[in-house]
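Form 7-S
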Amino acid sequence: MNANQKPENYACLAVDLGASSGRVIIGNFDGNKISLQEAHRFPNGPVEKDGTLFWDFQSLMNEIKLGLKKGIASARKNGAPVRSIGIDSWGVDFGLLDENGNLVSDPVHYRDKRTQGVMEYVFKNKISAAEIFIRTGIQFLPFNSVYQLFALKQTHPEQLQKAQCFLMMSNLVEYMLTGVKSCEFTNATTTQLYDPRKRGWADDLIRRLDLPRSIFPKIVKPGTKIAPLKPDVAEELGSHEAQVISVATHDTGSAVCAVPTLEKKFAYLSSGTWSLLGTEVKKPVITPRALELNFTNEGGVEDTYRLLKNIMGLWLLQESRAEWERQGRKYSWEQITEMGEKAQPFMSFIDPDDTCFLPPGDMTDRIRAWCKLSGQNAPETDAAIVRCVMESLAMKYRDTIMQLEDLTKSSLGKLHIVGGGVQNDKLCQWTADATGREVIAGPVEATAIGNIGMQLLSAGMVKDLWELRRRIHDSFSPRTYAPKNASKWLTAYAKYKSIRIKGDS
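Output:
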């Protein structure tokens, strides 16, 4: 921070990239409270080329630059020029750069079918699941970067031969803005190629999978000052002052950074397309029980880890809503919540994490099929589908919190829900009911706030993570939900636990 700069003049930009939308948010800090102003919001999604799902990276960069340009101009107009920029994104996906610093190919979308069966092949022919977990502590998901890279080696080895550098999506954006290549810690851990004990890339795992070690760049901590904007980019965007800071570049890492808790032991749920439910620990929990329960130890801020589980989340409703819209039935999110509330309770449940729900398209048919295969009545109406999904998520959250407390041997107390899912008032209440614990919901824009928060920490505007969380708590008013109808939810939970697809254990 400039010695002559007053705290109330500090402004920064958060580029927050999600799997369905992106936004650029102006963050202002007056020395006490953080305020937000949206500069630009844009849709994001996969494009299909020759049967493969890609991210349209050039289009994404165009939108990011437009948002940065708007944010820089707006901040300057308000008398507080932008001092720093941070980028966060979803995890696991990446781009490969050639010797000239150009993309070898557009990054492939994690929902692409190229990883089907790859994880199982790796376990059988290269290295066991137990060995991978011991090295990395990361949850097994078929689209983790390690399996994407192995699939690429099988299908397009020429791309890996051309590759000189591997960059996660947020770090790829940083490179386009600054010319600096690095991989930030929180995102590096999502690759399932990071060894937390060695605090670096899992070299033996990379070697056993015959992946090129030379492409993996230096790993940096969240809050690292990367570089100013490249001269041509600075000229294009209208800022020669802004410094790019590598925040918690994994969006969940940023969201957890923004949990407005004043207690050291807490559970969090980052609720959006995915539900990420976990707690913050100082050391990764790499035990046989954690492996059995398929938990993950992703990197966090300030030398912490995020012990959590990935749950399919609001993707189930997003895809159902898109399907209904294609059929001519257009519902707002408020209407969807109301539909779920009015439908008959506890009629049918699904396992939200069944891999059959991972691909896009025909979601409601798959939900009905799952219910029939498990011996339940299929939800016939749109409202019944909504109720089934929301109640199933609430039950899954209960399961996961109980497993967390088993793994950490501690009581986690309240559940903090952050992210876009807090706008679903009924799901927040049902989560409190299902888990039997108080739910603190908010802030909605937790990922952008955590992004901004790491920029403030890096600039010395707040002294540590706990001061930052107190500032966030004071800046954004969360809503509290007390559990209700305990006996009804306990009875329904017993029903949920008894349901199995025929043939499953």
